[in-house]
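Chain X:
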Amino acid sequence: MSRNSRSLARFLRPEGPAAIAFIRVTVGLIFVSEGLQKFIFPGALGVGRFAKIGIPAPQILAPFVGSVEIFGGAALVVGLLSRAVAIPLVISMLVAITSTKLVTFNKNGFWSTAHEARTDLLMIAGLLLILFVGPGRASLDARISEGRTD
């Protein structure tokens, strides 16, 4: 097995306790829901919201982010390339926090900002858990890595 194949196998390794499947599926379903809502409610949550908060090229970025959330979330639900998918989703969440929560920090104060950011922070925590611990045995990643040797 080549070095690249071994690195990929290690990256896909389905480590983590069985309970990680609950976190992975829950985080994935939330992303699917949020991504779909960017298309279902474009004025409030998609292009219109992106334009309102100053995201550049909202006509391009809102559908792009929505698609990343839908496909990334679905991949998490089934546990496919879970660690790899967690990376762009963490980036999406960091952009969400900086563009919506931190920009109003001076106006709203710490406690209001902390309250508004709680879901975003939990999503990041769940994604980092998946990234660092792995998707768990109940995942497609586990099926892919079965029989491989490192």
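Chain Y:
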Amino acid sequence: MTATLPAHIRDVFDRFITTEYVTIDGRGQPIAWPVTPYHHPESGCVDVSTGLGYPKKAIDAERNPRVALLFSDPTGSGIDDSPMVLVQGTAQVDDADLDANRVRYERESAAKLPVATASLPPDFVRRRLMAWYFLRLYIHVRPERVYVWPEGDAGAEPELLDAHLEEVRSGHNEEPESGHASPDGGGSIWDRRLDALGGADNATAVLAVVGPDGFPFAVRAPVSADRGARVVNIDADPVGVPLDAGLACLVVHRHSPDFSWQTNFQVRGDLVQRDGRWTLAPHKLVGGFELPPGSAFSRLRLNAKKVNRYRKTAKAELTRRGAGR
């Protein structure tokens, strides 16, 4: 489908170095993470990948192939006045040859992120000590529906570009409604990282929900933290976004233009209305694999426990997937 999209939309797919990838887990919880997109117009897909040591992005897509990609952070793309683009699509996971996927990942990431990959360890280290990261699961996302906010403003009406042409002509979504998970309820948790929301570096975040048609929907919106009430305020009412009380995910990430450093975390919880405004009541905060500004030693210390866990997971996944067949 991507070949039929306007050139400036294809440019976003080609040049953005991160996209917010959204899946839905087995309990109906939307989960969003920043990943690097690789556009392949010859197949009409936008591909993303995940390391074998943290395969949830792929496992969720295998269970439920309805996924979304939000292109909302143009940092490092070189595109001025970029639109915000949401792709809702169907996913297919490629684990047929994990070593070939490793070679492909090294080639594609070096082309797209040359500074970030310039200091990669030697090949034998990547193959043996860091196989949990470099053995990749690729997820091919075939766009079914594309929303475009021309100025990146979620307060404006988005333009709909759709693979289902009859839906575009009728001007509305005709997918059957499948519902979404209700709020969990219960008390909220709080984490000190949430206190920074609404500040200069984290004025916006990506909110992911499940739409009435069963597809994930995501949008970048202004946010602020209310420690006293233990909620994150969504400080806008995005036009055309199917917000309803239920499970939601908020992902916060930053990276340098050359991707030499990156930080990220996500918050899962209940999206509810309070006093006429949407808020997220946090139930779980999850930190991703991060490479913040600083020395290699500080990065190693930050991720040491995670790496041990990723190695164990990768070993189990190799067995489960037949060592890439």
